[in-house]
Amino acid sequence: xxxxxxxxxxxxxxxxxxxxxxxxxxxxxxxxxxxxxxxxxxxxxxxxxxxxxxxxxxxxxxxxxxxxxxxxxxxxxxxxxxxxxxxxxxxxxxxxxxxxxxxxxxxxxxxxxxxxxxxxxxxxxxxxxxxxxxxxxxxxxxxxxxxxxxxxxxxxxxxxxxxxxxxxxxxxxxxxxxxxxxxxxxxxxxxxxxxxxxxxxxxxxxxxxxxxxxxxxxxxxxxxx
Length: 225
Hints:
The chain is an alpha+beta fold and 225 residues long.
């Protein structure tokens, strides 16, 4: 049975019209969710850290931002919040396949404390993040031991100087309420960082991990007499 060309054209136009309408509705609904996520994360971070000064740089429309907080104790907090383009219905399907998620990157540079334990843990499934870590470490990685641990069905590559660091990393990952992509304590840069999945909007959970991690890998600067 041959279907008239005019009928096929009408069906095609109807399908395209429905798809176009769905994409428009999807865009506005997801855009509202992304903006709400960005707003909630920002409010939670400012409430938690109570910065005395702050500076934001937008990365793009509903993409995220970079920020620097000056804290009351002299510490500096560097923030990068990035969201995935889930407001595009077609791209959202790709996100599901690639498992890309919204991320929050917190890096603390202490003022009166110093990092004394060089330790890094990176999610094995994120090859790009692992390569970036190796690039940052350079030849320093040769002085670190390397192990692979599994926590909550996720595998992490850990670079460390002491076996105690493995238990520290394992405990932090197990206690975390959000998925952690990377934990790093840079001894020479005196920097402590956490990169986590922020799709849930639970910025406080990420901040708590940073706080606990920083407390474990830093020491107070001795007072001069």
